[in-house]
């Protein structure tokens, strides 16, 4: 993993908060299947960490809690970036031992595994190839959805076994269902400062800072005009973007407001919503 994509001056996703129907069942999944540790826990909420210090993921059970709704804007998947290919091999072997149902893809820039949590929230676990090997054409990075060579990944193991989420794990990106792409692109580009780095036809868009392959994925696969999910349903609650400085955040707040979007200050946290109603926390 190349850390420069997740430090200043870049803007990146730091933390994701999910709504779940059953906190206990979700904690069991995130600990036993994914190997997270609990950082803090209350009756309806738990924050999860890879390094024992910084929360990457928070899960919360609304009151009342409802199932994930189909054909809505919101979470497609959040993506956990492992520090190296050996760690991907370890978790792949662990998933196989758990008979975990998986999807898998080679994206050229990365190698990825896909699964769902008990509520159907999408999760990607991936590792990046060296950025020097990524191919760029007309300012766009070339990504594909090729079959993953699982045997080649498992060959990294040399007898080592999985021991949970390793230190150095970060939130690599978030991929969202949105209701349309034109205003959404304007919001994330002219408002939040992300550049388009790849377009998949007219239905998906990948954006980043600092020439990463993507910190944000956006698609209309849930349908153009897809409404936002209800507050009680399982899915995305909010995700946090990390800015390099107070000045950088203030500049973005002003850009977002100039585009006609509201930025609220809630207990010292600045939050805004994208055109599809996805809630974003602007942090430093």
TrEMBL record:
The record's listing under SUPFAM superfamilies reads: Glyoxalase/Bleomycin resistance protein/Dihydroxybiphenyl dioxygenase (SSF54593)
**Which keywords fit this entry according to its UniProt record?**
Metal-binding
A Pfam family annotated for this chain is Glyoxalase
Q: Which residues form the VOC domain?
A: 12-128, 170-284
Entry superkingdom: Bacteria
Leader sequence residues: none
* Protein's name according to its UniProt entry: VOC family protein
Q: Which organism is it from?
A: Halobacillus naozhouensis
């Amino acid at each position: 993993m190349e850390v420069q994509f997740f430090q200043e001056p870049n803007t990146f996703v730091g933390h994701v908060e999910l709504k779940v129907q059953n906190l206990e069942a979700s904690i069991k999944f995130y600990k036993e299947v994914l190997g997270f540790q609990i950082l803090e826990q209350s009756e309806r909420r738990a924050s999860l960490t890879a390094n024992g210090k910084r929360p990457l993921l928070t899960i919360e059970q609304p009151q009342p809690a409802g199932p994930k709704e189909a054909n809505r804007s919101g979470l497609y998947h959040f993506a956990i970036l492992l520090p190296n290919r050996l760690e991907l091999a370890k978790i792949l072997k662990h998933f196989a031992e758990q008979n975990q149902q998986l999807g898998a893809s080679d994206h050229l820039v990365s190698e990825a595994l896909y699964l769902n949590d008990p509520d159907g929230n999408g999760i990607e676990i991936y590792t990046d190839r060296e950025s020097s090997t990524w191919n760029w054409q007309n300012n766009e990075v070339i990504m594909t959805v090729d079959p993953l060579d699982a045997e080649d990944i498992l060959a990294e193991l040399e007898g080592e076994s999985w021991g949970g989420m390793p230190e150095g794990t970060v939130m690599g990106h978030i991929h969202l269902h949105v209701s349309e792409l034109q205003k959404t692109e304007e919001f994330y580009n002219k408002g939040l400062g992300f550049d388009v780095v790849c377009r998949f036809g007219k239905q998906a868009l990948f954006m980043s800072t600092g020439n990463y392959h993507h910190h944000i994925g956006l698609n209309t696969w849930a349908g153009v005009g897809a409404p936002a999910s209800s507050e009680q349903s399982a899915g995305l609650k909010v995700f946090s973007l990390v800015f390099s400085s107070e000045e950088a955040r203030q500049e973005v707040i002003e850009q977002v407001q100039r585009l006609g979007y509201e930025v609220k200050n809630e207990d010292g946290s600045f939050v805004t919503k994208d055109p599809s109603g996805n809630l974003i926390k602007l942090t430093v």
